[in-house]
Amino acid sequence: NLLGHSLGGAVASLYAAAFPGQIARLALIEALGPLTDDGSTTLQRWREALAAPTDKSARVFPDAGQALAARCRSTGQQPDAIRAIVARGLRQQEG
Q1: Domain housing 15
Q2: pLDDT for residue 87 is more than 80
C-alpha cells in the first residue's frame, strides 16, 4: 500500500506506474495530477505557474468554526475528517 500527499502524491503515483506489481493500493491526498507530456517542458511550465500573479485573496472568517463549515460545504467532507487540515491553514488577521 502506498499513500502520498501533495507533491508526495505525484511521486507516489509515478512510483506506482513504474512498479505496478509492488503496489496493491494507491491513495493520494491533494496530489498533483499526472504529468501528461514527455517532461521536456515541465520545469518551464512550473516556473511560469509560480511566477504568474494570482487573483486569489485570503478568505477571512470570524472564527475557526466558520472556516471549518465553509470547507465542509465546499468539499462535502465531514468536520472530523478535515478539522486538522483547516486548523493548519488558518492565520490570525488583524482587524
Answers
A1: 1-36
A2: yes
